[in-house]
Amino acid sequence: MARHPTTRMRFHGVAAYEILTRDGLRILCDPFLDQNPGAATKSTEFDHVDLVVVSHAAFDHLGDTDKIAQKYGCPVVCGGEVKAWLMDRGIPASQIRATTWGIRVKVAGIEIQPLECHHWSQIRLKDNSFISGVPMAFIVYADDNLRFYHYGDTAIFSDLKLQAELYKPNVGCIGIANPQEILHLNPMPGEMLTGEMSPYEGVLATQWLGLETVLPCHYIKLDGDKDVADYMEHHRQARARGEAIADPYLLRAGDWIEFDGDGKVVRPAKAA
InterPro entries annotated for this entry (predicted)? Predict the structure, then answer.
């Protein structure tokens, strides 16, 4: 297979990302696809999948990991609770690399650095019991000079600065919204006023992580999303004050973004 000149990444809505390395490896991060009204591709429609990385067991992040692992025979990197859920669905333990904060792994030729995040992770097994585990953010070392930070539904916390110092992510997705189209799938009383991070907190997280390129996310429909608009307004204010902050790219579900060998964006031609 000829080496591609760019690393390509496609957003599928919420926090689902597809990465194609320059060597043609396909990595799926938090592959919420089949119930995701924004997903450009459903779980059975890839020609191959080489690796799945899952941050935690929420339905809109865990997504179709079991179906993908079964269809493509690819390994999965995840926490212990996701491993138990996958095995409960017939995925062999030999196909699953369980890890947690700090335990860096290399699977399918790709290095993954799990990171602390502040969230929760719980899921029900077939026998109706609940299991819980430790959610994680992670960095995917997709290619030389591309260190992709996936936030894993974290709330803001100050050790994001330490993560920046230790691991130097240069591209990252930051959750700053709520996917309105799927909130009905998890009915509860009252309403959610913010996601795990408010738009303002998302701007601070972007800065604390030292990113060069930021992909605001956790939405399905981009146009008209108030949280995305609020994030961009806080971002503009930070830049107007002369503060260092990443270039933002607002992707619609199905959009691709491409990076050169230095980890710089080559497409789209312009940031938001």
Answer: Metallo-B-lactamas, RibonucZ/Hydroxyglut_hydro, UPF0173_UPF0282_UlaG_hydrolase
Q: Is the pLDDT of residue 220 over 70?
A: yes
User: To the nearest whole number, what is the mean pLDDT of the chain?
Assistant: 96
How far is CA 106 from its chain centroid?
18
- Kindly report whether the peptide bond that precedes residue 169 is cis, defined as omega within 30 degrees of 0: no
- Nearest Cα residue to 180 out of 232, 234, 226: 226
Does the predicted model carry a pTM greater than 0.85?
A: yes
Domains of the chain in sequence order: 7-248 (3.60.15.10)
pLDDT at 184: 85
